[in-house]
Amino acid sequence: MIKVYVVYPNHSGSTFDMDYYLNKHMPMVRQKLGAALKGMSVDHALSGAQPGIDAAYRVITALTFDSVDAFERAFTPFAGEITGDIPHFTDIVPSVQISEVKL
Prior knowledge:
Blueprint: E1 2-9, H1 18-33, E2 39-44, E3 57-65, H2 68-75, H3 79-84, E4 95-100
Antiparallel strand pairs: 1-3, 1-4, 2-3
């Protein structure tokens, strides 16, 4: 099992439309990736480790797949459409990490 993390750094002055992300972008992602997508979560930062400290990331999204191959087969045909939607909800350039779930 793998997780694809899409993380949006918490830059001062950046914008992020959480309503659009949750109600338009993520349902579109779910529809495009189909049965290959086993699960998803969206975490919206509250704070950093200490009171009054901003979180490093504004939003962290995790998408679960059986394998890297399953992710690539599902994502590649729709990559342009999915990534092309990013400017509709944020001016933040996300980072992506693919991890193997160990526990």
